[in-house]
Design a protein that fits this description.
Helix Hairpins; alpha+beta; 3 domains; 5-stranded mixed sheet; 11% strand; extended; two-stranded antiparallel ribbon; 7 strands; 10 helices; Alpha-Beta Plaits
């Protein structure tokens, strides 16, 4: 498809630029490609859900934090790439299925035709009085054998193509997995966390089933990085992620929220259940003595946590904000503890 850059398009883009930059500056939002993409479409007004979310946030007079800016981009733009991958994968699956079916049908037809002509060959061999007819039939049988050989080669070629398509499908599945998980911990990444939470909140409005959110932050993580280096810091992050993974069940979504911060979405869970799980995780982390490869202890690793239960009618940002606020209440109370949101 050709895209023509007309004078009108340039003028419209320039006008959006003139409107976007003051908005970004007024809200203290860095002018990154991701942030500009968000506000370009906000001004253009072509994604209603994006406009509604920004308008609601503006009404709260809350700052546009880096986390909120990242949420806007991931929610409204990053998932489109994943959806494209999913569409391509489904198309490939259908193509493979249809191709395999055609191969099977063609191969079966050729086999049946060969058997019929083989029977004619036997009959003609016994009818010596019609030698001319026998000669013609043998010629036909010769051609049929060539067809069988050709079909055999076609089958091999189709099998090869099918194997290639299956490999491509596996690669696309891997890309999708990489796009939805955090590379360091293999937990759900921020984008997957946001998508999962939005889906659950939408269903919760109708079902009235409880949803609880737990937020964790590793205490004094900067000190760990400064004292032992970033490789050891990565080891600590993976250790905490493993504890979260082992402590949650199938329907839960443990995620790396960003940096040294983690989150767990707990569907069908009341606030008290979330607090019990958070305390269990906090205690397990605190009780483990991590050591470097040379045997040097890293000291006690602890986490602070905050827990909130979804309140009907609130949006995802408010739900997260309350859990995060409870987390920092734990920080202010001396760390290595769990606080509940109000």
């Amino acid at each position: 498809m050709d895209i023509r850059v007309t004078e009108t398009n340039i003028e419209k883009s320039a006008e959006i630029l003139r409107m976007a930059l003051p908005m970004l500056s007024r809200n203290k939002i860095p002018v990154t490609p991701e942030n500009y993409t968000v506000w370009f479409h906000y001004i253009q007004g072509d994604i209603q859900e994006l406009n509604d979310q920004i308008d609601r946030h503006l009404q709260t007079n809350k700052p546009f934090s880096p986390e909120f800016n990242d949420t806007l981009y991931r929610k409204h733009f990053e998932h489109r790439q994943i959806n494209q991958i999913e569409s391509a994968r489904n198309q490939l699956t259908n193509a493979i299925s249809e191709t395999s079916g055609s191969i099977g049908e063609t191969s079966n037809d050729a086999q049946r035709f060969s058997e019929i002509l083989d029977n004619f060959n036997t009959s003609c061999d016994t009818a010596s009085s019609i030698s001319d007819v026998l000669g013609v039939l043998k010629d036909v049988l010769g051609e049929t054998q060539l067809m069988k050989d050709s079909m055999g080669q076609m089958q091999v070629q189709f099998d090869t193509r099918t194997a290639e398509l299956n490999k491509l499908r596996e690669e696309l599945d891997q890309v999708r997995h990489q796009a939805s998980t955090d590379p360091l911990t293999s937990l759900a990444n921020r984008g997957t966390f946001n998508d999962t939470l939005e889906t659950l909140l939408s269903s919760s409005e109708a079902s009235r089933k409880p949803i609880t959110l737990v937020m964790f932050d590793i205490d004094h993580f900067k000190r760990i990085n400064d004292s032992f280096g970033h490789l050891v810091g990565d080891k600590v992050i993976r250790f905490v992620a493993d504890i979260l993974r082992k402590s949650t069940k199938g329907g839960d979504t443990p995620a790396r929220y960003g940096g040294e911060e983690f989150a767990i979405i707990l569907p069908d869970t009341q606030l008290e259940g979330g607090i019990r799980l958070a305390e269990k995780i906090r205690a397990a982390i605190c009780a483990t003595n991590l050591v470097k490869s040379g045997g040097q202890s890293l000291g006690r690793i602890t986490v602070s946590g905050g827990v909130s239960q979804y309140q009907n009618g609130e949006d995802a940002d408010s739900f997260i904000y309350r859990a995060d606020k409870a987390l920092y209440e734990s920080k202010n109370n001396g760390r290595n503890c769990i606080s509940r949101a109000v």
